[in-house]
TrEMBL record:
This is Transmembrane protein 33 homolog. It comes from the Eukaryota. The chain crosses the membrane at residues 106-126, 132-155, 176-200, 255-275. Keywords: Membrane, Transmembrane, Transmembrane helix. The keyword Membrane applies. Residues 68-95 are annotated as: Disordered. GO terms for cellular component: endoplasmic reticulum; membrane. GO terms for biological process: endoplasmic reticulum tubular network organization; membrane organization. Its main location: membrane.
Length: 337
């Protein structure tokens, strides 16, 4: 009994220390709180903020602090003749999940990732693979369009000037680029599996970013998921490690996507020698590559790819095909405008 009392007293002191800690002066707290994905109505509740402060204190200051899971039920105040008493009111269903913007985006991107992966498997029948290919591109287009609508809304007025200003605000965004990218190949006559590499990278990044925040025990308690057993805890740990790995390799995924996007442009040029050639698609795709080269969100990766190509190809052209210098310089001037 004495040891238990000492343990309770120690935890009480730890909770007091956690409550009195100056979180606002710790820059890690601002970063930690900004990465917590919870509905706005819960983020404004003091008990929710205090809970995550204790989780922060446990992670960075005192691992010995025991943080109890958050209760999934709320409270309501009832007044009677004898006074005021607080009684629990029923909360949301145990398996209910709030379908906010992040959850919708996660669901669509997870669906896209599974379909794109299914389409690339070699043993899948051709008709099923082609359908998965187009559905994954269609899902990416819907996800990008929904993201654009969530962030930028619609034009203030449906006139030429307002629509032009709205288009200028979204033209260089990654969501707009992938929206156009997906539309180009979902309407194509043939299925280039190579085009799914950027789609896979994008959907994997979005899924990992969502799961990285929601697999935390404190966040999962908000979803009232049961992670008490060891198997679930082990699975959660492996999933979190995988998400951390993906988030730490976002640059690598972007480099892979940019290489695939540029390589796809040359594959489309080679397709001119096939009966399925589409001049309009090739012209539009190279216009999109030009946009990727100049757009701030993709410029760094695409410019790096083209620099490598120039270092490899330019000496060969100067030595064996100098007559190509003039047309290449004309193309470069158009490209850099």
């Amino acid at each position: 009994m004495g040891e238990e009392d000492e343990g309770v007293d120690a935890q009480k002191l730890k909770r007091i220390a956690a409550a009195s800690y100056d979180y606002e002066r710790d820059p890690r707290w601002a970063d930690y709180w900004s990465n917590i994905l919870i509905p706005p109505n819960m983020a404004s509740r003091s008990d929710v903020v205090d809970h995550f402060k204790r989780k922060f204190y446990q992670r960075y200051i005192d691992p010995g602090l025991i943080v109890e899971p958050m209760s999934s039920t709320g409270t309501s105040t009832r007044t009677s003749g004898s006074g005021t008493s607080t009684t629990p009111s029923p909360g949301p269903a145990p398996t209910a999940m709030r379908w906010d913007k992040q959850t919708i985006q996660f669901s669509v991107n997870a669906w896209v990732f599974v379909l794109a992966l299914l389409s690339t498997l070699p043993l899948i029948p051709a008709n099923l693979s082609n359908r998965a290919f187009r559905l994954s591109l269609l899902g990416t287009a819907c996800s990008s369009l929904y993201s654009l609508y969530s962030l930028y809304g619609t034009p203030r007025a449906w006139n030429m000037q307002a629509v032009q200003m709205w288009l200028q605000s979204i033209l260089a965004t990654k969501d707009f680029i992938y929206f156009i990218y997906s539309l180009m190949f979902v309407t194509s006559n043939y299925c280039l599996r190579f085009a799914l590499i950027p789609i896979l990278c994008r959907s994997l990044e979005h899924v990992a970013k969502f799961l990285r925040h929601w697999v935390q025990p404190s966040s999962l308690s908000l979803l009232t998921l049961n992670l008490a057993d060891k198997d679930s805890e082990r699975q959660r740990k492996y999933l979190e490690e995988l998400c951390v790995w993906v988030e730490s390799n976002v640059t690598t995924l972007s480099i892979l996507s940019s290489h695939a996007e540029v390589g796809l442009g040359f594959l489309l040029i080679i397709s001119l020698f096939s009966w399925q050639r589409n001049f309009i698609q090739i012209f539009m795709y190279w216009q999109l590559l030009k946009l990727m080269y100049h757009a701030p969100v993709t410029a760094g990766y695409h410019q790096s790819v083209w620099t490598k190509i120039g270092r490899s190809v330019s000496p060969v052209i100067h030595r064996y095909a100098p007559f190509l210098d003039t047309p290449i310089s004309v193309i470069q001037r158009w490209w850099l405008r």
